[in-house]
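hey can u run this one w/ coenzyme A bound, need the structure tokens asap thx
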Amino acid sequence: MSKSAPRTGNPKSPSRKIPQSATTPPDARLAGALQIRPVRRGDLNAVTEMDAMVTGIEKRDYWNSLYHRYANAVATGQHFLVATSNDEVIGFVIGEVRDWEFGSPPCGWVFAIDVRPDVRLAGTATHLLQAICQGFKRAGVSKVRTLLSRENTLILSFFRSQGMMIGPFIPLEMDLES
Ligand SMILES: CC(C)(COP(=O)(O)OP(=O)(O)OC[C@H]1O[C@@H](n2cnc3c(N)ncnc32)[C@H](O)[C@@H]1OP(=O)(O)O)[C@@H](O)C(=O)NCCC(=O)NCCS
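ok here u go:
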């Protein structure tokens, strides 16, 4: 039996490079070519509605405040990117470089990624993740991490498909007494 390759890196496409603002030809499930670019104020409604569709909770103030903190903050390692097709926002990703958190050297953290349900499985999230990872690399870090809910097997399948593996940290929590 031949030895299989080590299961690290990105099994989808180890060397595909996607700049932060890039256009790829349309997948059959998308209305037009896919573009990844930094978020603009005019995208916020679509982002808020997409998140409400996925989580069932509308958090307009939260998304406004994230926009203020992350839009135009690439220089400080923060990224808020959207995916568009035919000028419509169909997905987004948010993350940032965090220095020495939990004692670890600076690394990129992805803390939100969503694609509109009607255009999933067309490679949009893959492109969003690759674009934000390139931003992290440009900032000089060589590792990306995320945290996800144990029950969310969909997001787990997605991150595993991109080559992400269990990391060295254990999340802990407790209730605070009132
Ligand atoms: C997870 C999510 C971002 C994936 O978006 P997407 O654009 O459909 O992903 P892609 O098309 O790039 O899929 C890449 C790979 O992920 C895996 N994947 C994606 N959706 C999957 C599904 N429903 N079942 C199993 N694997 C899946 C597959 O391996 C897929 O590759 P393949 O199509 O070659 O099989 C999207 O389903 C989503 O927004 N889900 C809700 C996210 C969420 O819960 N967010 C809140 C916490 S941040």
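The longest strand covers residues 88-98. anyway lmk if its weird
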